[in-house]
């Protein structure tokens, strides 16, 4: 395992071995049976290329009404519980005394990306965000606490875990592209990113 610090974002390359990655994918399949992926629509009416779902008390949703956390999936069901193997990773790397209240599940198919944005729909920015990458490699970009200025990029690979705490918590960040087919973890290709957050 190697650790890289990128503008305050701590990336643990190779944190999860293949067996743990496969077990996580199985756990997530259970979650997605209960709360299926959907393509959120931004407040401006654009369908996001990333498909999403969530586990935990809250899921993050967006539609014409705006961005927010909700206790139910857009189809009306409560979100599934966060799987134990996911909680274990939070406990190992977050340094937080609290439990995560949201495990956002982002699914990137061929061509999906996520523009530069800040995560600021949570209440307490002293709590970190933990990200877990599974499947195809993704080019992750980190900038500053305001729009513009210099950015730095790094490829996130399957099994990498990143921690965004302290000075990194309000950095602009995004996913520029996916190397489709670069991992054999998911049979149809694609990438899953989990982000664990304290919301309230
Ligand atoms: C840096 N997800 O869900 S994870 C998101 O790979 C999101 O799906 C991306 O951005 C993905 O909001 C990037 C890495 C990440 C997550 C949260 C951050 C980096 C962050 C919060 C602050 C700074
Ligand atoms: Fe984000």
TrEMBL record:
Residues involved in Fe cation binding: 117, 119, 173
PROSITE patterns (alphabetical): FE2OG_OXY
Residue intervals of the Fe2OG dioxygenase domain: 99-200
Binding site for 2-oxoglutarate: 106-108, 191-197
CC cofactor note: Binds 1 Fe(2+) ion per subunit.
Domain of life from the UniProt record: Bacteria
Biological processes per GO annotation: methylation; oxidative RNA demethylation
Annotated substrate binding sites: 60, 67-69, 121, 147
GO CC annotation, single: cytoplasm
InterPro entries linked to this entry: Alkb, AlkB-like, AlkB-like_sf, Oxoglu/Fe-dep_dioxygenase_dom
SUPFAM superfamilies: Clavaminate synthase-like
Cofactor(s) in the UniProt record: Fe(2+)
Keyword Metal-binding set for record: yes
PANTHER family in the record: ALKYLATED DNA REPAIR PROTEIN ALKB-RELATED, NUCLEIC ACID DIOXYGENASE ALKBH1
Protein name: Alkylated DNA repair protein (DNA oxidative demethylase)
Organism: Roseivivax halotolerans
């Amino acid at each position: 395992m190697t650790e890289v610090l990128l503008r305050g974002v701590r990336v643990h390359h190779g944190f999860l071995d293949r067996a743990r990655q496969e077990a996580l994918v199985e756990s997530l399949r259970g979650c997605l049976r209960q709360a299926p992926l959907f393509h959120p629509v931004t407040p401006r009416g654009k369908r996001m290329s990333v498909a999403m779902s969530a586990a935990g008390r809250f899921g993050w949703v967006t539609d014409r009404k705006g961005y927010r956390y909700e206790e139910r999936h857009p189809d009306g069901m409560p979100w599934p519980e966060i799987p134990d193997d996911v909680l274990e990773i939070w406990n190992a790397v977050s340094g937080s005394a609290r439990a995560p209240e949201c495990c956002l599940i982002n699914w990137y198919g061929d061509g999906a990306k996520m523009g530069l944005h800040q995560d600021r729909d949570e209440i307490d920015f002293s709590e970190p965000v933990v990200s877990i990458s599974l499947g195809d490699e993704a080019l992750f970009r980190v900038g500053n606490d305001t729009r513009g200025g210099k950015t730095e990029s790094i490829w996130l690979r399957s099994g990498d875990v990143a921690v965004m705490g302290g000075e990194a918590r309000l950095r602009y960040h995004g996913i520029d592209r996916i190397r489709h087919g670069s991992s054999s973890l998911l049979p149809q290709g694609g990438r899953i990113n989990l982000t664990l957050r304290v919301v309230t």
